[in-house]
Write a structure and sequence with these properties.
heterodimer, A: 366 residues, alpha+beta, 2 domains, 11 helices, 14 strands, 25% strand, B: 178 residues, mainly alpha, Rna Polymerase Sigma Factor, Chain: A, Arc Repressor Mutant, subunit A, 8 helices, 81% helix, globular, disordered N terminus
């Protein structure tokens, strides 16, 4: 019979009875296993002695009173540097670009659902971002299923929330290890945007601009966007200095981030994809170059556009997991990423890595 | 007849609040104890426990099945992170503690005890998060199945993880021994 494994022997140190009869018989006559057991037992006792802490008593009642007296912080919310007030304009603009890009690929009517199967880069300049109109002024957005991200959970919890297995990189890039992994997950998020011609015109008039008329049937029509469920796996120490609100400079950039989400889908009522594209791309603030790039993304019903900030990042088409993907690498050397769609799921692998490392990690995703 | 959505929301909030208070009171001593095992500083351990409950309250429901394991793991991680970040401060405080300790223990014994604690905690802080967490949770009296739930692995893996962690701790402590 083979020798007892380390796990079984170590368990015997704490619980001598937790051993199956055949293992017990082997142990009784095996000098090698006994010697290993003695070493483990000594290490266990040593660790126990080393980790002794002087007895302390904690009063939960008074601790709860102190807890209740602390200033409230938002529940089920979290703050990222990108969501600081100064960044909100840019985030809103980015959201518009993504929604415009996704929106123009929406199906002709509600019975046709947009389901991207591939990705395509769309270059965007900072000037594009700054001059984009505010999507909120074109109608009303409403969550029908609110985002409820769960952060710092276990892998099992993340998988339970998302309903699929967490993505795992089988061969981690050099310098990345799995000793400090953070999991986050979200259930599906569904939002509905209802176009309002009156609201759009009023907002434009307030800024002294005139909008092109909405095509027939667009006023009151809706776009329904579904994103997720998804899982994000972050490798690296995300520790921020305690006792203060972290600033962007204090946030440690993760070495590797892996994300998997069900591909987004869009349904549209009352407006065709062509009408939507023509209308949104004719808005003041959308540069002709950006409009041309969005129009050129290919098959609009099956392509997910990936906005690429041209001043900060380069993009290239790559083959990843035997499908076409987009590799993003920034010019500052800070990091790179790969995005692709396969089997109805969108995947992202990126971090403070070289592009070939990100691509290799992406190809080793299981 | 209208549906009393507001009333239901208030009732749900109250119920969540009650559940959280129950969870807090049931688990506080254990969570603070885990932090104290790492920090050997009851006051700082209570700070960690407050921080951990605050984070949990912001992001999770007190009725979650994973509430207790989540709190245990977070207490260990947060305390270990503090140990990693406090080396310089600790040396200063240690010198103060040694002065105070000299009044109750003979100076030689107190100095040795403090130095041992510092060295062990420094070694613990150098271990990767998972083995360090397993060691701390076991030393805090958690069962194999409680540790397994907290770090998200099968109970059968705990023996092996513990064995490796103990060997790694011994190696790290010996490395730091002059």
């Amino acid at each position: 019979m083979a020798h007892l494994n380390d796990g079984t022997l170590r368990r015997m140190v704490d619980d001598p009875d937790a051993i199956a009869a055949p293992d017990r018989d082997h142990f009784a006559g095996c000098a090698d296993c006994k010697a290993r057991f003695d070493t483990m037992s000594a290490d266990a006792k040593s660790a126990e002695a080393l980790l002794v802490a002087p007895a302390a008593s904690f009063d939960a009642g008074s601790a709860y009173r102190r807890f209740s007296a602390r200033p409230a912080r938002p529940r089920f919310g979290f703050h990222l540097p990108i969501l600081r007030p100064a960044s909100r304009g840019m985030v809103a603009a980015l959201a518009l670009v993504v929604l415009v890009a996704v929106g123009v690929t929406a199906a002709v009517n509600v019975s046709n659902i947009f389901q991207p199967q591939t990705v395509q880069p769309v270059p965007i300049s900072v000037a594009d971002l700054e001059s984009l109109p505010d999507l909120a002024t074109y109608g009303d957005f409403k969550w029908s299923q609110q985002p409820s991200p769960q952060i710092g959970i276990t892998k099992d919890e993340a998988e339970k929330i998302a309903g699929f297995s967490a993505p795992t990189v089988k061969s981690l890039p050099q310098g990345v290890n799995d000793s400090n992994v953070t999991y986050a997950a979200s259930t599906q998020v569904v939002g509905t945007f209802t176009f309002s011609a009156a609201k759009a015109q009023a907002a434009a008039a307030a800024k002294g601009k005139t909008l092109p008329a909405m095509p027939a049937g667009m006023d009151g029509s809706t776009l329904t966007l579904s994103i997720g469920p998804g899982i994000i796996v972050i490798y690296g120490d995300l520790t921020v200095p305690s006792g203060s609100t972290a600033t962007p400079q204090q946030i440690k950039l993760p070495k590797l981030i892996v994300a998997e989400s069900k591909a987004p889908s869009v349904t549209s009522t009352g407006v065709s994809a062509k009408q939507l594209e023509d209308y949104l791309l004719a808005q003041p603030g959308i540069s002709p170059a950006l409009a041309a790039d969005i129009r050129a993304i290919g098959d609009p019903t099956t392509t997910l556009p990936i906005p690429v900030p041209v001043e900060y990042a380069t993009s290239s088409k790559v083959t990843v997991q035997n499908v076409q993907g987009v590799a993003l690498g920034d010019n500052t050397g800070i990091g790179s990423a790969v995005v692709w769609i396969k089997g109805g799921h969108v995947y992202f692998v990126g971090g403070t890595l070289k592009q070939d490392e990100a691509l290799s990690a992406a190809n080793h995703l299981g | 007849m209208g549906v009393d959505v507001g009333g239901r929301q208030i009732a749900a909030l109250r119920s969540e609040g009650d559940s959280f208070e129950r969870l807090f009171k049931a688990q506080y001593a254990r969570v603070a104890g885990i932090a104290n095992r790492v920090l050997v500083d009851p006051q700082e351990a209570e700070d960690v426990a407050q921080e951990v409950f605050m984070d949990f309250h912001r992001l999770h429901s007190a009725n979650s099945a994973y509430a207790a394991p989540w709190l245990y793991r977070a207490a260990a991680h947060t305390a270990l992170n503090r140990v990693r970040g406090r080396k310089r401060r600790e040396r200063r405080e240690l010198a103060q503690a040694m002065d105070e300790g000299a009044r109750t223990l003979d100076p030689q014994s107190q100095a040795e005890l403090n130095e041992d604690r510092r060295r062990v905690r420094e070694a613990l802080g150098k271990l990767p998060a998972k083995p360090a967490t397993v060691l701390v949770l076991r030393a805090s009296g958690l069962s194999y199945s409680e540790i397994a739930e907290s770090i998200g692995v099968g109970t059968g893996q705990i023996g092996t993880l513990l064995r490796r962690a103990e060997a790694a701790l011994r190696k790290e402590v010996n490395r730091g021994t002059p």
